[in-house]
Design a protein that fits this description.
Elements (H helix, E strand, L loop, with lengths): L1 E3 L2 H13 L4 E6 L5 H13 L2 E6 L9 H5 L5 H11 L3 E3 L3 H4 L20 H4 L3 H16 L3 E5 L3 H13 L5 E5 L19 H7 L1 H12 L5 H14 L2 E10 L5 E2 L8 E9 L2 E8 L3
Parallel strand pairs: 1-4, 2-3, 2-5, 3-4, 5-6
Antiparallel strand pairs: 7-8, 7-9, 9-10
The protein binds adenosine monophosphate.
The site of adenosine monophosphate (AMP) has 17 residues, from helix 2 and strand 5.
């Protein structure tokens, strides 16, 4: 695996790769890698000739300073995991490389209302930060194919919109959520849970599964209220638990045969914020 810290050298290297007629798959991450990230690397290796992964903890997408400062980092282990998984190129820029000045952090993209609902409502400015970094990374790497995880479902829709808005010819693949044995969606933030919290955290997925099973017969709003009150009793602080149209995240109160619906949840266990989602139809 070749490791780059500076975009100008990475660009040159990738220009050479493209000139040989090879396709490139790109997997952007914030590091503290786990099997969820590695599944994206594996998808990229199946679909593209050369796989590029980036590790950059993007300060601009954190609306909470503490969350940014406590974001887990395990760069040596990440490099080992990427080597083992057959990743070809790792890009690990520092902040100066991505944001040389203040003005480069605050570009606004007309993504539309989807930017300000659900995650966007509870993490103001988050998606603007995501769009800023993704635009820069895509301009540096110019991939043929981008691999994103369904774990961050709203981010997948927003990045797809951004790619359309920027008129980039990049195929986007949304890869399934990789879970721990007890159902907890893998996440770098899970490293911040203590033993008890880690056990409790699996209840998030359990409650989405429970709603999904009961939805054909029961009213969503009643299922939602009962799930929220159960989760609160277990110590969660819920930001949202919603059902939405999976195409545009318009909120739904009832399951309707015409909709491709998704359940989405965000909740805190102490100061660790967890998200998860589940398609209502498989
Ligand atoms: P992050 O490092 O959290 O920014 O995530 C980098 C990429 O990995 C994003 O596209 C995430 O959606 C994806 N990802 C994170 N966790 C998982 C998971 N458990 N399963 C699949 N993809 C994931």
């Amino acid at each position: 695996m070749v490791v780059f810290k500076y975009s100008k050298y990475l660009r040159k290297y990738l220009e050479h790769i493209r000139s040989e007629g090879l396709s490139t798959g790109f997997v952007p991450t914030m590091g503290a890698l786990h099997a969820g990230h590695l599944s994206l690397i594996s998808q990229s290796r199946k679909n593209a000739d050369i796989t590029v992964c980036s590790i950059f903890v993007n300060p601009v997408q954190f609306n909470n300073k503490d969350d940014f400062q406590k974001y887990p980092s395990s760069i040596e282990n990440d490099i080992l995991l990427l080597e083992e998984s057959g990743c070809d190129i790792l890009f690990m820029p520092d902040e100066q490389e991505i944001y040389p000045d203040e003005a480069s952090k605050i570009k606004h993209f007309e993504i539309g209302p989807i930017e300000n609902i659900l995650e966007g409502k509870f993490r103001p400015g988050h998606f603007r930060g995501v769009c800023n970094v993704v635009e820069k990374l895509l301009k540096i790497t110019e991939p043929s194919h981008l691999f994103l995880g369904q774990k961050d479902y709203q981010q997948c829709l927003i990045v797809s919109k951004l790619i359309k808005l920027l008129n980039l010819n990049i195929k986007v693949s949304i890869c399934p959520i990789i879970r721990e044995a007890d159902g907890l969606a893998m996440s770098s933030r899970n490293l911040r849970l203590n033993e008890n919290e880690r056990k409790t955290a699996a209840k998030l997925h359990e409650s989405l599964n429970n709603i999904k099973t009961r939805l054909p017969l029961e009213n969503f709003l009643r299922l939602k209220q009962s799930a929220i009150s159960d989760l609160e009793k277990k110590g969660f602080r819920i930001d949202y638990l919603e059902m939405a149209n999976a195409d545009d995240l318009e909120l739904l109160e009832n399951i309707n045969g015409n909709y491709n619906a998704i359940l989405l949840i965000a909740a805190f266990l102490n100061d660790v914020r967890l998200i998860d989602n589940l398609m209502v139809k498989d």
